[in-house]
Amino acid sequence: MLSLYQPGHSLLHRLPAGAKLIALSLFGLLLFLTDEARILAVAAAGALLLLWHLRLPLGLLLRQLAVTLLLLAFLVIANGLLLSWHEGLIVGLRLLALVAAGTAVTYATRPSEIIAALQACLRPLGSAGEKAAFTLGLALALVLRFIPEVLYRIRELREAMAARGIRGGPLRLVVPLAIRLLRSADEVGLALEARGYPPDFSRPLAKESKRQNEQP
Amino acid sequence: MNSRDLVLIPLFAALIVALGIMPPIPLGFLPVPITLQTLGVMLAGSMLGPWRGALAPALVVLLVILGLPVLAGGRGGLGVLAGPTAGFLLGWIPGAFVTGLIAQPILQGNRQGLGAFAGLLLAALIGGVAVVYACGILWLALIAGVGLGTAALGSLAFIPGDLIKAVLCAAATRAVNRVYPLMPRSA
Question: Do B74 and A98 touch (CB under 8 A)?
């Protein structure tokens, strides 16, 4: 599965992932501390400028944001009619700033950098953190591996049903699909154990100790 | 967590993603086409139990944070997580948990037939519909300023689709449990 990340050399691309995530969370929090339309307008303009400076193709942005923008317009109108247009403006600007900033960070940050940043947060927690970081990485790798697998299974089941002239409702698809997935979990679980999972986290991982031995 | 759990959780996370990639099903009598993505969330809860069930959608949320287009319609990224509908996405985690909490004793017990189906349906309705909508509506009201009532009214269009998914989830879980017992008997 391809990520939304778009390669580039902008300032936002070059910042470390952890800093971007922390800044984004703070930005989101601050937006809720103020009800001043002017401050929110500046924030929204800043976030849009950030998004613009990534120089993304407009079609790509529109496809990703169409649903959100539609909902945003609806919320502004709902607020305007039910409460006041001033309230609608505040809500609209705040959401626009949030969504634009979040989208900008997503398009300018590699998924692998975000994983590394999250794992770095877990590492200081000792062997339990080490284990959590390892398990998280493995679990993410497994999901990415399983997505095409599940899609393939769905297609296979549909073809098998079509070949037998069965019109497939969702239930006819979900039951055999779930049974196949549960069966394959047994097999992949055994395969993991055969390859030494879980590793012993109380000792340094083999790779690191080997590297230490090589150095004179 | 044993190695089988380590596989089951990503597998059901992948199921949630895959069900979102499949084209939405237009139902003649509903105004909005339904995607099966939330069916995946209900299935994770009722087939894996509360803890493992909640971790599967949590993994999907993590993929959204990483910027992968794993949500229906190829959406994803931090923009979605900061947007007005994020409550529905985050609500998947407690939703699957509650579904599992109610479904687990039913799957372990000896109840058969209609009673088991009713219990599993209740689990999917409370966890997969009520809890998810509560989170989604609360977030929408909080972030968008509109009152709880308005936020709830705007979400009504999706309720019929989710009710159908809850029925599907209960029927599928019961059928699978008969062939392939989902929960250890003495847990």
Answer: no
Q: A interface mutation test: which of B7, B163, B178 has the most A CBs within 10 A? A: B7
If DSSP states are collapsed to H, E and C, what string results for B135-173? HHHHHHHHHHCCCHHHHHHHHHHHHHHHHHHHHHHHHHH
Which CATH number do you get for residue B102? 1.10.1760.20
Chain B residues whose CB is inside 8 A of the A59 CB are none
Report pLDDT digits (tens) over A8-44. 888 889 999 999 999 999 998 888 888 888 999 999 9
Interface touch B146/A75, C-beta < 8 Å: yes
Of A78, A102, A185, the CB nearest to B79: A102
Residues B150 and B20: their CA atoms lie apart, in Å, by 27
- ipTM, 2 decimals? 0.88
**Nearest alpha-carbon partner for B169 in B91, B106, B84:** B106
- pTM for the complete prediction? 0.87
* Domains: count for chain B: 1
Residue B187 falls within a domain, yes or no? no
